[in-house]
Design a protein that fits this description.
The chain has five helices and ten strands. The chain has about 200 residues and is α+β, with helices and mostly antiparallel strands. The strands form four sheets. The protein has a three-stranded antiparallel sheet with strand order 3-4-5.
Length: about 200
Amino acid sequence: MREELTRERLLELLDFDETLSRFRWRERPGNNGFNAQRAGKLAGYEWHIDSLTYRRIGLEGKNYYEHRLVWLFHYGHFPTEKLDHKDGDGLNNAKENLQLAPGNLNHKNMAKYSANTSGYNNVYWCKQGEEWHVRIQHNGIGHYGGHFKKEGLHLAIAKAKEMREAFGFSPAHGLTREERKNHSDQPILTGDVCERKSLLP
């Protein structure tokens, strides 16, 4: 069974670019082909999961998310939990932008979905009834916040906000990536949240 990658081995294979918070391939003695093609260049490739983008790097037959390697570089071990990008940008692997996501914290700190019909998270347009519905997923349970007439969108938004606050969601939850930049200094959340494994490597 292959041993887990260590920080020492990581730095034998890659150099860390502090400016970009990205890794670059290190020169490999005696491997002229590799050195000509990769040495000094950014390692890895972009990996898309739904509307999110991360970077992955293949090392010794295994693929790693770059943000997990950044954590290993800074702290000497892999994170014990999944990781959350505070600003919602999966390519921003700066140390200060990464935080442990105990339980399902990441689901409470997500950017707005591109397919959102109202412009606000947890508020949905129901064509059949021609009204707005409010629904929040928390700890694996869907919580219904009611339905509102077409002209009552502002009431639906207020209800969704009230429910998010009651369940401990981040103030940045549901904002666009641009808007979220102003919330990157929010304190780390704790407690249980609804997991969305496919979005949280």
